[in-house]
Description:
Elements lengths: L7 H18 L1 H8 L3 H24 L11 H21 L4 H13 L1
Helix pairs in contact: 1-2, 1-3, 1-4, 3-4
Amino acid sequence: MQPIEFTPEMLLNIIAVIASLLASYFPALSTWYAGLKxxxxxxxxxxxxxxxxxxxxxxxxYGLIPSASPISWQRTLYAFIQALIYNAGSYxxxxxxxxVKQIKAARNNQE
Length: 111
């Protein structure tokens, strides 16, 4: 049985889902994140995914993350878009804690 080969895209998608899980369930982070406006949340996640994408691109280019094929800017852009989809999709799919629901309801009532 051969070991699983992690591609840069797979690593980025795993990090995207982990970031979503942290924003949903990590106690201090989830309550702070739930109180933010939707536009702010989107900006934070897009910026975070951009930073992680650039970091993985550089790590692959400098040989610190082995990759079977070279990573081009087109492949990096595709991976970035994929990570955004994984991140947003997992945030919507995972159930919210009751505390997060309360904070969102209070935030929506203020708007």
